[in-house]
Amino acid sequence: xxxxxxxxxxxxxxxxxxxxxxxxxxxxxxxxxxxxxxxxxxxxxxxxxxxxxxxxxxxxxxxxxxxxxxxxxxxxxxxxxxxxxxxxxxxxxxxxxxxxxxxxxxxxxxxxxxxxxxxxxxxxxxxxxxxxxxxxxxxxxxxxxxxxxxxxxxxxxxxxxxxxxxxxxxxxxxxxxxxxxxxxxxxxxxxxxxxxxxxxxxxxxxxxxxxxxxxxxxxxxxxxxxxxxxxxxxxxxxxxxxxxxxxxxxxxxxxxxxxxxxxxxxxxxxxxxxxxxxxxxxxxxxxxxxxxxxxxxxxxxxxxxxxxxxxxxxxxxxxxxxxxxxxxxxxxxxxxxxxxxxxxxxxxxxxxxxxxxxxxxxxxxxxxxxxxxxxxxxxxxxxxxxxxxxxxxxxxxxxxxxxxxxxxxxxxxxxxxxxxxxxxxxxxxxxxxxxxxxxxxxxxxxxxxxxxxxxxxxxxxxxxxxxxxxxxxxxxxxxxxxxxxxxxxxxxxxxxxxxxxxxxxxxxxxxxxxxxxxxxxxxxxxxxxxxxxxxxxxxxxxxxxxxxxxxxxxxxxxxxxxxxxxxxxxxxxxxxxxxxxxxxxxxxxxxxxxxxxxxxxxxxxxxxxxxxxxxxxxxxxxxxxxxxxxxxxxxxxxxxxxxxxxxxxxxxxxxxxxxxxxxxxxxxxxxxxxxxxxxxxxxxxxxxxxxxxxxxx
Length: 697
Hints:
Layout: H1 4-15, H2 29-36, H3 46-58, H4 64-75, H5 84-97, H6 100-108, H7 115-126, H8 131-142, H9 153-167, H10 173-180, H11 186-197, H12 201-211, H13 216-235, H14 239-249, H15 256-268, H16 274-282, H17 287-295, H18 302-310, H19 317-330, H20 336-343, H21 348-361, H22 367-375, H23 381-390, H24 396-406, H25 410-422, H26 429-436, H27 441-454, H28 460-467, H29 476-487, H30 498-505, H31 509-512, H32 516-522, H33 525-535, H34 540-551, H35 559-568, H36 572-586, H37 594-610, H38 614-623, H39 630-636, H40 646-658, H41 660-663, H42 667-680, H43 684-695
Helix pairs in contact: 3-5, 4-5, 4-6, 5-7, 6-8, 7-9, 8-9, 9-11, 10-11, 10-12, 11-13, 12-13, 13-14, 13-15, 14-15, 15-17, 16-17, 16-18, 19-21, 20-21, 21-23, 22-23, 23-25, 24-25, 25-27, 26-27, 27-29, 28-29, 29-32, 32-34, 33-34, 34-36, 35-36, 35-37, 36-37, 36-38, 38-40, 40-42, 40-43, 42-43
């Protein structure tokens, strides 16, 4: 006999340490139960929750004696003197932890006139590990004949059959089989399904006998259960027995879903002959059967796969593509010849499948082919790039690197760098440093992109040296960003700029200023000293570079310098740039303390005074939506009355309202302001957001 619950309990016992008994606060189990019982099933669920926690604890290993006591206490209260809600709750607990001590009491409830109570009793017995539970269920099933089925008995019968199937007890097979051989209906379907869940020859024989006479839904249920038996036998290593079941069911007399399931089983049970079966299926016209066959390729034996591969070119193109894709999914490197041959095929779809397969099955020997395809005008060029990036084999990075070092064509060099970057090939860093110092702008940009991903702080001197060879302008932006990305890998923020500061000392005076914008992106106290000195320099190049540097600053620590520049500079472009920098660092959405938010607001108020253009004022008002403080709301609201700035104020207010932490404590105030936004804004989407925040619970 097999019992699902019994197996589960044994596994739990084997894996779990003995649990401590529940804390009953000085009372006995009986006293606790007696105290809680009157409130179990009532609207206030505290009592039943308490008893449930006790039952869960008692179900753990090491609490067998109190578990039996608790189950006995509950079993004694299952009669109709106990209110229905409480009976259902008690049966639910017995379903979880009940055993032989509760079988008789639960079985008595199978005759209860209330169908909900009966069904709860069925579930409790279905999960009871005692063999007696099977006997009680079959005894009750045997009584369900004649007039009893006219009073809801059919539904009850289905429940009993399902319970017996769930138990998987061969002792119930005889009675279940008798129910299977009666009329065709839901009970007969349930019987067939139950026999599928019960392992063993008896259930299998009963299903086989019923198959010849079953019709409609019952026949379909019988076939499904036979498939289940076949799968169970196959898993147990009884391949021949399983194969016989699958063969019997893969006939035109069965419904298509059954035939497909049987075909799957036949392939799985055919060993080395499965290759021939798949070939035969794929040359047919049944698309569903072909899909089933392809789905089995991943688990074929080596012999079956060899047979399939040998005749691959005899298949229709769609089937060849499917097979190549399935072979690639296996990840079996021995099948590389199949992928190589397909990658050279004349048919475009087969070729594409082969190139993709190389990404899973290829090794360093496939690099040259993929590189040629990548550089060609062939439709698979993009796919070849993807496969090169994905190739998992050893030696691929080294091969790609050797090709890169010898490459002279800029476009191909850029592509190779991109592939090495995607492959996280750190061994390419020296070659990338060399490329970053080259003469081709596209190659330099690609090289710095690769260095951004692959380099470490120890490579910064080389990156800075390469940077100094770049041309001023847009060519330097990606280089600066790459150096900053590598510099911030240093956990010590104060040390991040040291390689750049060292380079400034070693660089000719007329070139040192070229490093200032980069320094500004890194920031830090030492950098600020250098930049402040440069800001007052009489050398135009040094001064201009320092302006860019302070406006590149990554955080609010340069607020004082930026405000001074915005206020005192006589150059409009400098004032504008400093205001834009202030807006960028002070209105970014980051975690701030209330004090930091107020400080940012104060800076933005000053920036608002200094702004001479509506574009800057609008940017400030919109950005303040990320400075989430009630004082920010108070500052922004008056701008709703200024037509030129009202829309920007609306955006800032709605962003402030987005913060539930800010909105909830100030709900009434926000409601009034959001009403004004709704009336003012011409942006329908913004108005809908405002309505949503206003009406949010």
